[in-house]
Amino acid sequence: MSPQTGIYLALYFAGITAVLALLLTPLCMRAARRCGAIDVPGERSLHKNPVPLLGGVAIVGSLSLVVWFHLAGAALMRAKPEFLQLFTADLQGSVQGWSGNEFRLGVVFIGGALIAALGLIDDLKGLTVRQRIYPQFAIAALVVALGIRPELGFFPAWLTFIIAVVWLVGITNAFNLIDGADGLAAGLAAISAFLLGITMLLAGHAASASLFFAIGGACCGFLVFNWHPAKVFMGSAGSLFLGYTLGATTMVATFMSEGTVWLFPLLIPVLAFAVPLYDTASVILIRAGVRASIFAGDQRHFHHRLMQIGFSHRQCVVFMYLLAMAFGTSAVLISKSNMLQDVILMIQAAILVGVIVLMERVVNRVAAKQPAPLEERLESSIPSPPAAMPPSAAEVRTAALVAEIGQAEAKGRS
């Protein structure tokens, strides 16, 4: 397949899922209002008015419809090869790529349906952390056991299995945890998906690229309604599904291309998901540092910390978008660079993480030493009225004498 055809195919998948998500999201908003799936503002909420959930169902629906429809088409074309004559020769490679992965993609999206159902129950009924995490591990173990795992020939099979399960559950929850600001999770997922899709195109894997672009398109269609101030939230159904699907797709795809060094392509997904992973790791370390439960909800997430130091809601989201692009660009470059360039790119990514950590520490330290606001300082500078002085002994005796005289006169008149 020519690179130009691969680009057209990726844009086609992005466009069709974006349109479907754009059409399905208002329907999900109405359904959420009817069944009472509303996010009422709480102590940790950044929104002030009730917002309907279930927007993530539009993402799940649009992506699932497109994937299952095209998988069915690929199976039909493989069963009847003469039907391929209706297409250009360039598209035959893509059709074969989809049809050759029917089972693996089917496993991925069946697992995605289970994860989305778990999130939907959480949105409607509310689940504890343990009620969410245990089923996630079970679904991840089932998916990995059915063959959705990376090719790590230098590790024993049992260790590869554990790494795959932990990776899948970790990315799933990373996107769920970072879904705390309008447009944040959907935007980061779209950026990661598009950059991974570009990486696949550069590596010559148009079928995998089209799947990543489909994920990114669904996020963009939903983002129209989720941008601040949000009209709808994706809820756990959407955030868990997005994290799971991205994590699973990175294990189905291969980031190897001619001339790449065997180790560094494995780091491409890590860089693509750097911002959600940094948020999850940093909040766990902060909670552990103050001896709080790592599962307890609070306002210690990265977006909360940015707003606490002065970022507005939109500035915070855009800043995190830019960080995701910076890390993701390194991921794209790794796919086409040599070992020395890969090392330099990883050092650059590590420096960027160091800059973020240093910025947070310095800004928080400066904020702690800042003088009180002007209004508070003006109020504290106004002298308070002097306290009343206690009466002297002479004044006490005089008042008692006046009282006695008054009592005597009153008796004389009576």
Biggest sheet: strands side by side, in what order? 1-2
Tell me the overall shape: elongated
Spans of at least 5 consecutive residues whose pLDDT stays below 50 are: 83-97, 372-382
Strand % is under 5%
What's the total count of β strands?
Answer: 2
Helix fraction by DSSP (H/I, runs of at least 4) = over 70%
Largest sheet: 2 strands, antiparallel
Number of helical segments with 4 or more residues: 16
Distance between the termini: 124 Å
State the order of secondary-structure elements, H for helix, E for strand: HEEHHHHHHHHHHHHHHH
User: Which structural class should the secondary elements be placed in?
Assistant: mainly alpha
Mean pLDDT: 82
Q: Which value, in Å, is the CA radius of gyration? A: 30 Å
Can you give a write-up of this model?
With 414 residues, the chain is mainly α. Helix content is 72%, strand content 1%. The N and C termini lie far apart (124 Å).
Outline the secondary-structure elements.
Layout: H1 3-35, E1 38-39, E2 51-52, H2 55-79, H3 89-99, H4 102-124, H5 129-145, H6 157-177, H7 184-203, H8 206-226, H9 235-252, H10 268-272, H11 274-289, H12 302-308, H13 313-334, H14 339-369, H15 374-381, H16 393-413
Main attributes?
mainly alpha; elongated
Short description, anyone?
The protein is mostly helical and 414 residues long. The chain has helices at 3-35, 55-79, 89-99, 102-124, 129-145, 157-177, 184-203, 206-226, 235-252, 268-272, 274-289, 302-308, 313-334, 339-369, 374-381, 393-413; strands at 38-39, 51-52.
